[in-house]
Amino acid sequence: MSTTPTLSSLNADTETYPLLTKALIDQLRQYATLRRVESGEVLYRSGDLAVPLYILLSATVEIVQPDTEGERAITILYPGMFTGETRIIGGQRAIVLARVVQSGDILTVRSEDIWTLATRNAQLSEILLRAFILRRTMLNIRQLGNVVMVGSQHSANTARLREFLGRNSHPYTYLDLDTDDGSQDLLDRFTISSAEIPIVICNGKAILRNPTPRELADCLGLNDDLRQNLLRDLIIVGGGPAGLATAVYAASEGLAPLLIESHAPGGQAGASSRIENYLGFPTGISGQELASNAATQARKFGTTIAVARKIVQLNCKRRPYELVMDDGSVLFAKTVVIATGACYKKPAVPDLARLEGHGIHYGATYIEAQMCVGEDVVVVGGGNSAGQAAVFLSQTASKVYMLVRSKDLTKTMSRYLIERINANPSIELLCETELTRLAGDESLSEVCWANKKTSQTFTLPSRHVFVMAGASPNTVWLQGCVALDDKGFILTGHNLPLCVPRGSSPVWPLTRAPQLLESSLPGVFAIGDVRAGSVKRVASAVGEGAIAVSLVHRVLAELY
Ligand SMILES: Cc1cc2nc3c(=O)[nH]c(=O)nc-3n(C[C@H](O)[C@H](O)[C@H](O)COP(=O)(O)OP(=O)(O)OC[C@H]3O[C@@H](n4cnc5c(N)ncnc54)[C@H](O)[C@@H]3O)c2cc1C
């Protein structure tokens, strides 16, 4: 075996491909079997399921990515190193090929034992996880995934699929029809017309023409592990910060939760370019990084995560509860945590999504206020949150323009706020006015609006627009199963109607009082932005996820 550096001397490169010490390899042996491998033997291929972890004792292994041209080299692993990247943790399908180039001995840890190893041995867990995450990042940066996408920067479906793969941290090679010379050749070779883009070549074999995210997820085997007949202790609906936190705490405490996410892990936070106010990240963290790390952490403890799968109905007449997925299949759960969040109502203005995080804000905290010192800013919306934002921002901004669609604020805003706005010379209230255009290359630079009555338009050079037009909760799928407030958010705990029904709203049915985050349906909890009265922050969503798990334990104890 080559000379082994001390662990303390590891740098970023050696953390990606670290050499394990003899002592660490000895600790691994109890989870592993020893075998000899011969040169040329393929240990696993892209698309293989539940791939073991291989620790090389005297063999050497090359890692390559097969593609339409042949193979692209990724790295060579020498004795003392180990195979794998993040997908190995949840037993998901491999995305690269591993082939022995020099015969020798290896240790094999079965897929189902990797989790046991990771939970029992903290030092090994840290080294393995760090290497897996760094390797995945490297594959992403070098576009060395098992997916080739041919698309166009002018195609909305291409953008949608790229966003889906990016949000799922899935490495892929992208060829743009407008700028990459080889892309047309590739389409010709597979006799595909450019009208069918985006084209996705999955594992070098299957060719998908303009697939949905779900078709792509299925092709990549992202959702293999949905054993439907199983009665589960806990199903989490929604994979934003609240759902992911529930998954981490539930799985680390011995429950084996299933998390169903209709798009990709991260929710609204996953779309944020930088979260500056989340505890422990003084320089901020991108929503994508936070979500991807949280998903890896949840999988490490044993959570199964399904992406691009939506829950469309809850059957709540009897227990166990039944959750119906978008393909009609049914999942069974003793307890359910609803973490489906909310969608901010967004004005239908071109470029809004592109400029999110680059001048378009959905919250006005101290951080945003500091960005606006001495500047002209725009607040869109006529509710209390818009009013509070305008008053708050007026303390630092030079001027706040408030765009309100209705004739006045009386029906939508508290009286005290209306008075403050009217008395504030730094706020200009513009009723019957709509945002019409946003401009800016990398970030917002210009904002346009129009008066609906006079059609008069106005253009303001500005770097900040605050969209405070309210949020709609993702609760339509609950169809009368749980009590909601008048805006559709889920009522929980002491806010529930206890005995007197409000209209057709369900009431709490048991003699015991509902728990803190429990909905009107016993054993069904609501957390994060979907809950009535929630704070709409990443930290509070995460905190509620942790609390919900302790409440789930109590309900499960009641059932036995
Ligand atoms: C652009 C932006 C920037 C932000 N910046 C900050 C910030 O800097 N700091 C901060 O504290 N907060 C910030 N927020 C607010 C913060 O992101 C939210 O409060 C937080 O994400 C709420 O988490 P959640 O898990 O409750 O809901 P969400 O993040 O909304 O996640 C809900 C998830 O459920 C999924 N889902 C919905 N319906 C279904 C269904 N039927 N079946 C399966 N899955 C479903 C959705 O796809 C989504 O992934 C920001 C929000 C936005 C939009």
UniProtKB/TrEMBL annotation:
Q: Which domain of life is it from?
A: Bacteria
UniProt-listed Gene3D superfamilies: FAD/NAD(P)-binding domain, Glutaredoxin, Jelly Rolls
Q: Name one Pfam family in it.
A: cNMP_binding
Q: Does the keyword NAD apply?
A: no
Q: Which UniProt keywords apply?
A: Flavoprotein, Oxidoreductase
UniProt-listed SMART domains: cNMP
In this chain the Cyclic nucleotide-binding domain maps to 24-89
- Gene Ontology MF terms in the entry: oxidoreductase activity
Q: Name it.
A: Cyclic nucleotide-regulated FAD-dependent pyridine nucleotide-disulphide oxidoreductase
Species name for this entry?
Granulicella pectinivorans
